[in-house]
Amino acid sequence: MIRLAFFVLLACISLFASQPKVLEVQIQGAISPASAHHLQSAHAKAREIDAQALLVKLDTPGGLVSSMREMIQTITNSSLPVIVYVYPKGAHAASAGTYLLYASHVAAMAQGTNLGAATPVSLMPQNETNTSASGTLEKKALSDAAAYIRSLAQMRDRNISWAEEAVQEAKSLSAQEALRAGVIEFVAEDVEDLLAQLDGKRIKVLSKEVVLRTENAERITYEADWKTKFLSVITNPNIAYLFILVAIYGIFFELMNPGGIFPGVLGAISGVVAMYALNMLPFNYAGLLLIFFGIAFMVLEMFVAGFGVLGIGGAVAFALGSVLLFDAHTLGTGISLPLIIAFSLVSLGFFIFVLRLFLRSRSALIISGAEQMVGAQAEVVALLKDGYRVRCHGEMWHASCQEKLDVGEKAEVVSLEGLVLILKPKKE
To answer: How far apart are CA 246 and CA 268, in angstroms?
Structure first.
């Protein structure tokens, strides 16, 4: 009896120890370098814990093609199954998200979700004077994107014709339509429902076949590490925009008031972070130049007497550059319009009014201190052994003079040595 109980205990321990694991990772928002790093880190963790599969819960409007391709390479070269699940209800896998679904070993969607609209968008502005060249570039980009998603569809044995339509005609499908069209394999209410449907499914991963055991699998959620969170913050167009402005203003204030230290340090750090963000995000050089020109025009407004043309023009250039800096269709999100309007108005008001007052205060006459005493008139009140006692600006001072002065005589202050006024006789 004891031996039987012992064997049952060992069997239970063995069963518990061999319980399959599924690592879950959330990819939400625009596809960016942070998304690619998050997926790579999650994939490495899944391999480390010997997970049965990596479940990617996806909700994205699209994003950067370069980051999307990095993620697809991670998926297609994975040694364990990667399940992409458009979740929760109301989520979508537009543009780059459609490619990720096609690249996955298993594609699934929740009810109330959609995918599609995978037409690539160029960041370069349209050139009306050279429509043939821009049209050729668009055709090349469209052909490349269609071939890419077609190859993914062939690799995963999914609907090829609709994949091309999603790219060339920007078509979209609901979850049930995608299931009927053979774009995805499953429609599930939630993660538990999906794992139950996946149990026992045979999947080809690289050169081998894997049987999923997911119905009672242990679910482990993978949280983003500090680097992913940092990349996610600075690659947000609004945050990158703020870092650019802080860098510009910080360095400007340091130049206006040398020795302030804090504005210069803050501006330098923000500048480095802004350059790092711009290195990862595609941006429009014309937009960045317009922001610099706009600030320069608003600064010139302080020095040039006019009717505010430079200031207004600078504010317009600043706002236009901010709008053009990042393309929302390419990144999946752009700079908030209220943020642009607020910074444009604040910058215009600040440069025209606040800094003009600052410059006036610096050029105003000195009304106190040693410099103010030079040239002032002093009246001799008494003769002393080592000089004179004089009245200057209503105050009594010790004074000396190379020439002889009499009581009541007026003299002019030449300089100040310590607390002693150096005088010279005042010429009538």
So the answer is: 9
**Tokens at 178, concatenated:** 């995608």
Question: Mean pLDDT throughout 81-96?
Answer: 93
Quick one: tokens of 401? Answer: 């003079």
Amino acid at 363: S
Classify each residue of 266-287 as buried b or exposed e, where b means 16 or more C-beta atoms within 10 Å of its C-beta. Answer: bbeebbebbebbbebbebbeeb
Least confident of 69-73, 182-186, 409-413: 409-413
Place of tokens 């504010």: 315
Q: Collapsing DSSP states into helix, strand and coil, what is residue 201?
A: coil
Nearest alpha carbon to residue 173 among 274, 418, 61, 181: 181
- Quick one: how far is CA 102 from the chain centroid? 29
Say if strands 114-116 and 92-94 run parallel, antiparallel, or are unpaired: parallel
* Continuous segment of H or E residues that includes residue 377: strand 377-384
Q: Phi, psi at residue 340, to the nearest 5°?
A: -65, -45
Residues in the chain: 428
Query: 320 CB contacts (<8 Å, ≥6 apart)?
Result: 287, 290, 294
- Whether the CB-CB separation of 121 and 128 falls below 8 Å is answered with no
Q: Tens digit of pLDDT for each residue in 356-379?
A: 666 665 555 555 556 667 878 888
Q: Are 84 and 178 in contact (CB under 8 A)?
A: no
Spatial separation of the C-alpha atoms in residues 217 and 40, rounded to whole Å: 22
Reading the block at residue 11, the tokens are: 């069997």
d(Cα 106, Cα 101) in Å, to the nearest integer? Answer: 8
Q: Which token pair is 17?
A: 């120890």
Residue 225 burial by CB count (10 A; 0-12/13-18/19+): exposed, middle or buried? Answer: middle
User: Is the entire prediction scored with pTM above 0.70?
Assistant: no
Backbone angles phi, psi at 115, to 5 degrees: -145, 165
Report the alpha-carbon distance of residue 237 to residue 335 in Å, rounded: 6
Check residues 381 and 418 and name the one with the higher pLDDT.
381
**Whether pLDDT at 276 is above 90:** no
Structure tokens that stand for 137 in this block: 């570039």
Per-residue model confidence (pLDDT) at position 136: 74
